[in-house]
Design goal:
Shape: elongated
Largest sheet: 9 strands, mixed
CATH class of the largest domain: Alpha Beta
Number of strands: 18
CATH topology of the largest domain: Aminopeptidase
Helix content: 25-40%
Length: 502
């Protein structure tokens, strides 16, 4: 991963392979965005580009300029940050990603970035995110990595009077980018590598590196806890299930707010006996993207030493088919004693989450958020632009919306109503795991999950449309998994203030 540092100093003396200059839309001169000294070295080339209208500063517009050989920098990468169609931080993220790719394409190994607008802390965070995530590649499974020059180091150049703000922003940006990179790596791994046991190994590794408390439950311990919903899904699994619990600031749980994050960890989903099509199975290695998001967030909140007691819960299993697999019309019992008639074995994620949501109660949480690639209907409704969010508490919903806008992993509020609950009424058991009516599947699934929630402040994020590339951003890979959710959850934890006694 690219290393990013800060430096206060003059731009014209910056020695680098590529000097990235962020330029706003509609700028009339290089002086207006702090690049006057650079333009002088370039013989006024930036000014001429602006005056001719050849460079307008529109979003992600790029021009590569070459100074005299005597200059400290070998190239100038002028990149536009656009106008107010999207928030400033998101425009900076995208610009940094585009500039990084451009600099890498021309062989730069070292880049410097300047021209960060106010507020410097937030824009420094965005630059770090954009650079790291824009240059992300997944090639660990290839026998030979692509023969490509890669940027090794970047320095953000700013004035000395804002260096403290920039340092704070860089710290957050690096943590968020590392969290998302981890989530991408895990979700991109093939299912014969990223098994439930592998997720547990990663959790143990993160715990060791970051000082987290970790517990990994195996099948026998789940049986003792009567986790019949999760264990039903795992009946046919070649690789045994794991139930992973990470805690940040566990020793301070009595004095700090307690937030519980729950991530669906289906490491491969065939649909079980309700078998998916051939094409429907492609991409199902990413059905553990909720788990990946929680692991990334737990890494980030510990790295940032957030003053909260944060619990990450990951129920992990495969959903496969063999003679031992659970079947449609089986009745199973979850760990809170409620019985479930199986209608679809392809509605397995909610079964894992059911037992995890019951388990969350033992932490006396101030708020619980689960995240999952749960329903195709959420993807059909919102595409790859927003995830669906359902919440029992208005402040929690607003907190997730605000966090999502801040990091641009956005959520859109969806309805919970008793009419949706009626669709899973069962003549045989307390409820069915799926409706036979092919409408409003995301809301119906949420009402199923609500049967296992025994605390007032809970939200469910359905990320079925956002766990793969939507093509909407320069810093999301064109192919592979997006890593959605790690930054959303981290930002939510940073921002959330509990109302005690709710």
């Amino acid at each position: 991963m690219i290393e990013i540092t800060l430096r206060a100093g003059s731009l014209e003396a910056t020695e680098t392979d590529a000097l990235v200059v962020l330029a706003p839309s509609g700028a009339q001169s290089a002086d207006s965005f702090g690049a006057g000294a650079i333009d002088a070295i370039l013989g006024g080339l930036i000014g001429r580009l602006l005056n001719a209208g050849d460079f307008t500063g529109k979003a992600e517009q790029v021009a590569v300029l070459y100074p005299p050989e005597s200059a400290a920098f070998k190239r100038v990468v002028l990149v536009g940050t656009g106008n107010g169609d999207v928030p400033l931080a998101e425009r900076i993220r995208r610009a940094a990603a585009v500039a990084g790719k451009c600099a890498q394409d021309v062989g730069a190994k070292h880049v410097a970035i300047c021209g960060l607008p106010d507020p410097v802390e937030a824009t420094t965070t965005a630059v770090a995110e954009g650079l790291i995530l824009g240059l992300y590649t997944f090639d660990s499974m290839k026998s030979k990595a692509a023969d490509q020059s890669k940027i090794e180091h970047a320095v953000i150049v700013c004035s000395g009077d804002v260096i403290a703000e920039a340092e704070a922003g860089l710290r957050v940006g690096m943590a968020l980018a590392r969290a998302t990179s981890l989530a991408r790596d895990l979700a991109n791994l093939p299912p014969n590598v990223c098994t439930p046991a592998y997720l547990a190994e990663i959790a143990v590794r993160i715990a060791g590196e970051r000082g987290l408390q970790v517990e990994v439950l195996e099948r026998g311990q789940m049986q003792a806890l009567q986790m019949g919903a999760l264990l039903a899904v795992a009946q046919a699994a070649h690789n045994p299930p794991r139930f992973i619990v990470l805690q940040h600031n566990a020793h301070r749980s009595a004095e700090l707010d307690t937030l519980v994050l729950v991530g669906k960890g289906v490491t491969f989903d065939t649909g079980g006996y309700s078998l998916k099509t051939r094409d429907g199975m492609i991409g199902m290695k990413g059905d553990m993207s909720g788990a990946a998001a929680v692991l990334g967030a737990m890494q980030a909140v510990s790295e940032l030493q957030v003053e909260k007691h944060v619990v990450g819960i990951i129920p992990a299993s495969e959903n496969l088919v063999d003679a031992a697999a659970y079947r449609p019309q089986d009745v199973i019992t979850a760990s809170n004693g409620k019985t479930i008639e199986i209608i679809s074995t392809d509605a397995e994620g909610r079964l894992l989450l059911a037992d995890a949501l019951v388990y969350a109660k033992r932490f006396a949480p101030d708020a619980v958020v689960d995240i999952a690639t749960l329903t195709g209907s959420a993807a059909a409704a919102l595409g790859g632009v927003y995830s669906a969010v359902f919440a029992t508490d208005a402040e929690l919903r607003r907190a997730l919306e605000h966090a999502g806008e801040t990091v641009f992993e956005r959520v859109w509020p969806m309805p919970m109503a008793p009419e949706y609950r009626k669709q899973i009424d069962s003549d045989t058991a307390d409820m069915r795991n799926s409706s036979t009516i092919p409408k409003a599947g995301a809301s119906v699934a949420t009402m199923f999950l609500a049967e296992f929630v025994d605390y007032p402040v809970w939200a469910h994020v359905d990320m079925a449309g956002t766990f793969v590339d939507s093509g909407a951003s320069a810093y999301i890979p064109a192919k592979g998994m997006s890593g959605y959710g790690a930054r959303l959850l981290t930002q939510f934890v940073i921002e959330w203030t509990t109302r005690k006694g709710v």
